[in-house]
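[SOLVED] Predicted holo structure with fe (ii) ion

Edit: marking solved, answer below. Original request kept for reference. I posted the sequence and ligand SMILES and asked for the 3D complex as structure tokens.
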Amino acid sequence: MSFELAPLPYALDALEPYLDARTMEFHYGKHHQTYLNNLNAALEKHPELFKLSIEKLLSDLNAIPEDIRMAVKNNGGGYFHHNVYWATMSPKGGGEAKGKLADAINKTFGSFAAFKQEIEKAALGRFGSGWAWLSKKADGSLLVHSTPNQDSPVSDGLYPLVGVDIWEHAYYLKYQNRRAEFVQNWWNVVDWAAVEDRFVEGQIK
Ligand SMILES: [Fe+2]
């Protein structure tokens, strides 16, 4: 049973004008699909690993046979991170976190505005490709951090709640080199209800 590309939960143009349809078409249809294809191709060499979840595979890379470890790290990370990315955006997104997630954000960062600044600092401070994340630590507390390439928070024992993709493929067609402008616009499509569900229920399993 190989891994599959979940359908996008909205149309390709649903996140316009913040994320344009052409970028979505390539990002979901080509980049995400390619990570998935390469992950499945690697796992075909050790098909017993198909019974593990993608989070589980990434959470203990040392347990992955060495001949496919790098492929699983890079393509498994790319596959998993884009699953999280699509699932935590919505055409009805934007605004601020509510409920238990808002309480945790305020407790950790002081305010929602201060939290946003931390994410933006992580996103703009990442040289080259990667992600800026809000993740949950094993003790349930929150952390803003950045990972390079497709290195996964779960490989560091962190559960990613929401992340902004700062690979150029995520924004170059519309924003060219203007990463800061892209991140500013991304806030308008974050689905805080979905992020709160991940905060309350999410775990590596
Ligand atoms: Fe991406």
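OP edit: Residues 21-87 form a domain with the Helix Hairpins fold (CATH 1.10.287.990). Thanks to everyone who chimed in.
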